[in-house]
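Run: sequence + protoporphyrin IX containing FE -> complex structure.
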Amino acid sequence: MKPMPVTTSIADIPTISVDFLDPRFAADPYPALEEIRAVGPIVRNERSGYLMLTSYADCAQVMGRAQSFAADVEHLTALFGGTTFASLSGARHRQLKGIWAPAFQRKSLAATYPELIRQVIVDRAADSIARLRAGETVDIAEGFVRAIPAVVIASMLGVPSADIPDFVRWSDEMGHILENRDDPSTHGRALVAQGKQATDNLNRYMAAVIDERRDRPGGDLVSQIAVSEVPMTEAEVVAATTQLVFAGNETTAKLMGHCLVTLAAHPGQREVLRQNRDLLPQAIEEVHRWSSVKVATLRFVREEQVQVAGHELAEDTTIMALPAAGNRDPQRWERADAFDINRPRLAHLGFGVGPHACLGLNLARLEVEILLNHLPRPEPGPARGRDPAEPPSGRDPGLAGAAGRLRRQLDGARPRGDRCRAGKRQGRTAMKINVDTGKCIGSGACVVACEEVFGLDDDGVVVVLQSNPPAELRERVHEAAEACPAEVIETTD
Ligand code: HEM
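>> structure
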């Protein structure tokens, strides 16, 4: 590829006007994202002044390099009612994220929570499935999937079931702060105020639970942070817990909805999945790539000068990475606009990259997989009714009615087989870890799986901290290799 010329003047950057508050954007952001891409890899939004990025590589650069690009600290602090590790970088970020990292490893989750998650889904599904069987149309967004992740995380935090409805409501209302942050209307301001009140309520509630767990710790996530030896202020402990509640709530419900609607709308792909149920994890990743939950994220240049998409940007410049556009970058994916569960696996930006990559990605994947496994098996014979037309390809597509069709369109998937190659691991003594650092995309998934062995350097690239780890860490090293979305870690033992 020809190297891009470097310019120093922001005036050289082309402009466009995009209204991210337009309901049409919320319904389907992809036409607007493609308009931005057509203007160039870096484009200034006349409305906000933000510099928008559409390519995979540029989004990965600014989302993944925490030392050059700061998160939206002010906003995150307001959202969670205090400083959390999402606002921090470097050693302190790793220290705080590390408190819960072991609990969010795929293996820990698989050992502890599938039954809990399944039960939450069964309880929520009972009514919807009865109505579907009676031939009714059910709004699966509100009526089924919306509350599943909040109830799951409430249970993981050990919140008593009587308090769960309040807990779910507060967590939902906090979403108004994000959704309406740039809406100056009276209604928008009122929703933000309601969201902030919800943050206060959740903070107060969590503070009381944390106090109680200090006296009587259990095996839940609140106890883990309440008794952690990592030095933290009380406000940091409370905000971290509130963040955990919020971060995986609406996001996971949306991914569930996107999976249901996308699979419902692609009968050919559903058939591929029906014939090979092992493709389910890959199908979920492809839905996430094709229909991103996180459309945009802000970063601020924190160095004097930094080069992005061929331009020198000055300190404090506001950048809006558009991971939804990066996930359909035609330079990275062939037929990027097509939904194809058989396409070669390549990491996408849906869970972020680098040190701030999602802590809960394994939990989200597990919940979605269990949900898809739980759906009723299709009735034999041809599908009745017409297949829905291709839906709008963005977030929050019209979910109502999709579940009614899913009843006959989706196969109840078999649980994902244990992809660990345990047999190969028996009775060996030395272990070698090879990492292709050139291909590392800095998702941080390996660090989440095994922080004793893997770290990220200042460029967000994986480093191996122990080349021949002790026997007790080896399972987790294998887990890290399997968790790596770019598949750059190889192990031999
Ligand atoms: C499909 C569901 C989810 C999606 C799409 C998602 C997406 C993301 C993304 C894109 C980031 C990085 C944000 C950035 O760099 O600006 C992130 C961070 C984070 N997510 Fe998730 N997430 C999901 C589920 C969860 C769940 C279930 C949890 C926990 C219960 C969780 C907890 C977090 C936390 C704590 C961070 C901050 C990590 C850090 O700053 O180091 N997420 N998530």
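>> summary
Residues 73 and 87 are 5 Å apart (CA to CA). The first helix runs from residue 23 to 27.
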